[in-house]
Amino acid sequence: MKTIYKSIFGLCLCSMSVLVTGCIDETQPTDEATETQISTSSSATKALLMAMPAYLNAIDQDLIDNSNWHAAFGYGAIMHIRDLQTGDMAMGTKYGGHFYRYYYDQYMGKDYMYNQYIWNYYYHFVMTTNNLISAVDTTKATNDQLGYYGAGCAYRAMLYLDLARMYEYLPTDGTKAVNSDGNNVTNYTVPIVKEGMSQTAARNNPRAKRSDMAAFILSDLDKAEKYISDLSLANKTLPHLDAVYGLKARLYMWIEDYANAQKYARLAINTTSTSVMTKDQCLNTTTGFNDIGLWMWGSQMTSEDDAVQTGIVNWISWMSNETSFGYAGAGPYVMIDAKTYGKIDDSDFRKLLWKAPSGAALDGQTPYIDNTVGASLPTYASVKFRPNKGNMDDYAVGAAVAFPLMRVEEMYFIEAEAAAHLDATGNAGKTLLEAFMKTYRDQTYSCSATTQAGIIDEIVLQKRIEFWGEGLSFFDYKRLNMSVTRGYTGTNHPASARLNSNGRPAWMNVVIVKTEENNNSALKGWDNPDPSGVYTPWVSSASAKSNLLY
To answer: Taking a C-beta distance cutoff of 8 angstroms, is the pair 197, 116 a contact?
Structure first.
């Protein structure tokens, strides 16, 4: 297995004058833009602003040492990795090797490129936000620049909130909190790399504890909340006030401040101009989950984007089973876990986002772009993410889609779960869940749980169904110490992925790459334990094998 060599350290410390060369569209007296020039040029600052949504879909092979690895297509790839590490997504075996290691819990230690990509992608993205934040002097900035600054703070908060929740060590059944160097790494997250950090500080930058990281993220979100109202651009690839409130709701859920989580989820709902997606919008064969106009915040690709032009190294290639040009349709089908699918009521229209088993009540009712293609798909295959304009064959059109970063639906589920935690009976959350489900998803829905724990489980189950494929369920599994169960009679997971954990799985404590340890002395001895191979794949009995897809 190929080991890693590249480090993000140098990327984080690159001078801004080099990074923004060529991004300035105003005439300046020198070939390179200085920080002073950027701070006085709204168009220059806007170029730094738009570098952030652009990096969501960056194909940056410099981040890894394998130019043939077709899993490096940016934030969407990270979302896909997280979903494959839960128990809710299954993937077909053909051509899927680019993502298998995450799915099989193999080579997840600090010496391999798989975690190198996650680390390097995020910190290169952080650098992009730091470039903007450091360029704006809020005491002298124009209103436009203040809005850009607020967006930069919100983007950085999103990235560090992701990193913190992915890398924070929490107890598991597969590894111990005291690592091989004898250090207890419980609640340690990642180093904070801020704008203006010196090389000396960066070379001795320890992992932040949960409380310190939460305070840093909240500081960014407070600044975003203060300045984001000056963001005059309506572009939904940029965060606006509703998304800032949504990020605060996510943050407070992570640190178990349920009162504030509920407060900010409701503020997001009341502030946003978007509505809950309807049945027709969700199941539409041309615009299903590819229309950024329906969400609070998203990523948008165009036919000219490098990721789209590859044809196969992009979001829709891996997430749409209905294309002829992409990976998913060629064999590494993305499917819902069979057991999760079985928990969805037939009266819930969301169940039509996946292919029903032959002879089941919903067999033949899922709408496909092309019925012949639909007939060829395996049971439980997803049709949630449609190619642009329903074009299955032309990647320049079909892959030019949007994917969601935040939908208002998430806020309803956060509000309900937070309410359930705050009410000893859980009934406050149950009431909110039933109201959402009956109004928007299933008119006949009723929550049968009668205990606080049971109600919370049901809220999170419905949230997992709602956000299947959107990279969010990982955080709930880890936060709530939920087990991953992929090995069982009737499973549709391939043999090597049939891993079962007792509580959160060890692989959800992501390992920091060795190159960072080599460049940052404060990380030496403080990495998470390697989770690779700590679980043995479940093996069915001979009598059950006939029920398995693989």
So the answer is: no
